[in-house]
Design goal:
Layout lengths: L1 E9 L1 H9 L3 H11 L3 E7 L6 E7 L2 H12 L4 E8 L2 H11 L1
Antiparallel strand pairs: 1-3, 1-4, 2-3
């Protein structure tokens, strides 16, 4: 499984949904699992994004499908970033030398 960072910004409709039904956040996490990903950790944040999610998924295609599916609902905008653990990154750089 690969690790991904999902940066989410709620739309006006999404903010209204979360305000009325805050449990909807956990329901979406279950939907992600049904699509093949697992939410490792999730944070509500201040600043340009509303949520930061650390997610594991088998591949980029799975994350792309999740981003399109959730984004098509009109309640959230998502930026998806593949993440490499630092130890793995250092090993990769050393093997290239």
């Amino acid at each position: 499984m690969s690790t991904y960072i999902l940066l989410s910004t709620l739309t006006d409709e999404g903010r209204e949904t979360v305000k009325k039904h805050p449990e909807r956040i956990q329901e979406v996490n279950k939907e992600l699992e049904a699509m093949g990903a697992k939410v490792i950790s999730q944070y509500a944040v201040l600043g340009p994004y509303d949520f930061v999610n650390i997610v594991e998924a088998p591949d980029n295609k799975t994350i792309y499908r999740i981003s399109v599916e959730l984004g098509s609902r009109g309640t959230v905008h998502i930026i998806s970033l593949p993440a490499i653990p630092v130890d793995e990154f250092v090993t990769m750089l050393k093997s290239k030398s």
